[in-house]
Design brief:
By secondary structure, the chain is of the alpha/beta class. Helices cover 36% and strands 15% of the residues.
């Protein structure tokens, strides 16, 4: 998955604006689980934290310096940063509680971009890929549990996903169903790349058949009239 990540994952400016508004003027910033650094602001000092050397190698020229480390063991002093940012990464951590505690330790504010599984537990992609629904359910953390792990309340800001979203995460193509058939599209998506190959292939066959015979449009064609859709994604800000 990581080898194709940079091809499909590019910051969407509308999502970026919501994240940057949540960060305010906090500086310096640590971006934990930074990947390619898509949502790192360029108007302040940023330090990226990323465990994968392959992901670090895909960071563009001029990106913030990256430290190879994991969220659970951040190599920084207490309150060394004005804010800690974590974008669509908490579900990958081996110990979410420890990772979130580390964010709280090293920063005065924590901003997360994540998906609340209770807000929208099911959408049409899960109809074709039940294994994706099971994977997401197994690693999702509801907002109240995140608050418990953080040890404080959070402000949750809904982030509707634009119909032409440029960041190819799992929900980005909700109005473009045929896109999910393209390996260049699905390979950077952990929820499709990490399920068993047989389950993914079966889902692709069902989706292709429903697109070809019009069944997808009969079931979900009403979505084509929408410009954005709330699929449970939220920006969370510690308060």
């Amino acid at each position: 998955m990581t080898g194709q990540y940079h091809r499909g994952r590019r910051a969407d400016p509308r999502i970026a604006q919501r994240i940057w508004t949540a960060l305010g003027d906090a500086s310096p910033l640590v971006n934990v689980g930074a990947g390619g650094g898509s949502y790192e602001p360029n108007d302040r000092k940023v330090v990226a934290v990323e465990p994968s050397a392959l992901m670090i190698a895909q960071r563009p020229a001029g990106a913030a310096p990256a430290v190879r480390a994991v969220a659970e063991h951040l190599p920084f002093g207490d309150k060394a940063f004005g804010a800690a940012l974590a974008v669509l990464t908490v579900h990958h951590w081996s110990d979410r509680g420890r990772g979130l505690a580390e964010l709280m330790r090293v920063a005065r504010r924590v901003v997360l971009f994540t998906r609340d599984p209770r807000a929208v537990p099911w959408w049409w992609l899960h109809h074709y890929f039940p294994a994706t629904a099971e994977l997401e359910a197994s690693r999702a953390t509801p907002i109240d549990q995140l608050e418990e792990l953080l040890g404080c309340r959070v402000e949750a800001i809904p982030v509707p996903i634009p119909a032409d979203c440029t960041d190819g995460f799992n929900a980005a193509y909700w109005r473009r169903p045929a896109a999910y058939l393209d390996p260049v599209v699905w390979q950077p998506m952990s929820a499709l790349a990490l399920i068993p190959e047989a389950d993914r292939a079966a889902g692709m066959r069902r989706l292709r058949a429903d697109i070809d015979d019009g069944e997808w449009h009969r079931r979900w064609g009403h979505l084509l009239a929408l410009e954005d859709l709330d699929l449970g994604y939220r920006v969370l800000i510690t308060t």
